Amino acid sequence: MPNIKKVAEHAGVSIATVSRVLNGQKTVSPQTRIKVEKAIKQLNYEPSILGRNLRNSETRLLLVLIPNISNPFYSKIINGIENTALISNYNILLCETDSNPEREKIYFDLARKKMADGIISMDPQVDKETLIEMAEKHSIIQCSEYTLNSSIPYVTIDNENAAYLAVKHLLSLGHSKIAFINSDVKFTYARQREAGYKRALDEAGIDAKSDWIYYSQELDFVNGQQAMKKFLNLDEKITAIFAVSDLLAIGALKEINNNKLSVPDDIAVVGFDKIEFSNMTNPTLTTIEQPMYKMGNIAAKMIIEKIQGKEVENVILDHELVIRESTLG
Amino acid sequence: MPNIKKVAEHAGVSIATVSRVLNGQKTVSPQTRIKVEKAIKQLNYEPSILGRNLRNSETRLLLVLIPNISNPFYSKIINGIENTALISNYNILLCETDSNPEREKIYFDLARKKMADGIISMDPQVDKETLIEMAEKHSIIQCSEYTLNSSIPYVTIDNENAAYLAVKHLLSLGHSKIAFINSDVKFTYARQREAGYKRALDEAGIDAKSDWIYYSQELDFVNGQQAMKKFLNLDEKITAIFAVSDLLAIGALKEINNNKLSVPDDIAVVGFDKIEFSNMTNPTLTTIEQPMYKMGNIAAKMIIEKIQGKEVENVILDHELVIRESTLG
DNA sequence: GTGAAAGCGCTAACAT
DNA sequence: ATGTTAGCGCTTTCAC
């Protein structure tokens, strides 16, 4: 494999000049540039980025921490991150933690060892103390899920108001027995959405029964089905469901169908995220739209600015209620 | 930031000794090892991987080329790749090409510049000539989609027989007017599956009408819907659909529902891949199961062995027909 | 068992 | 406009 030195010799110039040509500096005469470019072609030379990385102590890699890539919510955000990162010549180091602290450690070590220039954390399971400690020496931003009272910048939505909006919608349709499929309240977003749910019921003068809230440890379809099974066994029948994620809502919807009940006639359902599949169910799913792609764009912009040493402000993106068949009629 | 030299000074040993301790070599006396470890702790030292990368000319990064991460087929495979890669201390550089040659070039350049030790290509749109040329100097394997008559190792399934199996199933249910939603025949898998479709019809003495095949440029739900719209407008009504991907099949299913037709009574539907969504539709989708996760595992194993200079054999994984409601009764 | 020193491939400060 | 040189942080060969 030819290196910069070989190219320099072949072109009859110094390695500094070759480097200048490679980096497009203007202080090279046209003739010299041509000589060098010819040598590069002839030797089929490709500059190794490893030398540059060491010299510049950067890798232009962004570590992206997610629990699971199979969740469409995250894959859409990653899509947004990548498209924006590429423009600034950054690439993505994909890190699925699988909610496993050992995996998390592996990835944080990668950052500690300077294999990545910055971290975008989307993992709600992330160890907050480690994250805060890492943030002292490394560029970190949080996306979607964030840590209250830390100084780590984040981009997210207004979870409480979004949940409030969803439940208000159900209330406006005349529902009063509204169940809620939440995830673990150790997550900021889960607490905030629960607050929104409760506030809406509260304002309507409805006493939220503890039976009406199901705390799911995971976010797969099957968990939504489990939640629904529990709700269907309640003595006092609920007439509406609000789920903290579309995947859960779709699982619930499926379970309702399996029980020969009708959505929305027997039970209305509202999800959260507006993943693409939510428009393919039968009936289609009413949901809160989160701008996942845009959130990814902004997360990428933020982390790049942070790496460049700039100040970055937190960003709260808009959400929107998308009314579809699962709450119609 | 402390470096290896600082640690050496602080511990009163040479740089070489610190390096030995870092790499767990046995030729270090226990006392020295303790001294060094103490210094590492006290200085809060983290070895930079950049120096090692340069020295060893490796990054332990695997470039994973996919068209789009939002397709659950790919995210599941990536899941499998990552879990296996991690065990061997490799990480994943995520590369979404968006079927854009410019993007592809960016990523190939990353490999040329030695930012990755190997490439797993899952992108059917990949430029075959570039890929073959790259394979001369770099470790490459193909996953799922592959290039016929090239020497690039691959892991995939038997597409022709899988499609044949799907169509045979429909035939056995008495269907004779079976439409096929394919993707572009410039892809190996599309040609193979079409061959399987045609072979099954042929054996049944059925003349496959050209109207019965829809070639979709993309693989989103909406493309399945478009295909179905076309089929529904045919003079001679078809009674069954086989789609080359679950996403397309689900789109078709939705369109059938939208037209107040019943699946499977009016039209039976078979998909391909067995993505998780396929069990959440109403009715649930009959589909060909591909072992995505396992395919990822094997792809990772193969590329790592290739990087180590070992010979690797092509792998053809098993597929299976999963009969569900969309072809029941 | 340990240290000195070369060198991986590159960039940039400095010199000319 | 171009060359010389130091050095980024590490591993490894060779000496002792």
TrEMBL record, chains A, B:
Record keyword Repressor present: no
Ranges for domain HTH lacI-type: 2-56
Matches recorded under SUPFAM superfamilies: lambda repressor-like DNA-binding domains (SSF47413), Periplasmic binding protein-like I (SSF53822)
Domain of life: Bacteria
Molecular function in Gene Ontology: DNA-binding transcription factor activity; transcription cis-regulatory region binding
Matching Gene3D superfamilies: 3.40.50.2300, lambda repressor-like DNA-binding domains
Keyword Transcription: yes
Keyword field: DNA-binding, Transcription, Transcription regulation
InterPro entries in the cross-refs: HTH_LacI, Lambda_DNA-bd_dom_sf, Peripla_BP/Lac1_sug-bd_dom, Peripla_BP_I
Pfam families in alphabetical order: LacI, Peripla_BP_1
Xref: PROSITE patterns: HTH_LACI_2
Protein name as it appears in the record: LacI family DNA-binding transcriptional regulator
Source organism (scientific name): Gracilibacillus thailandensis
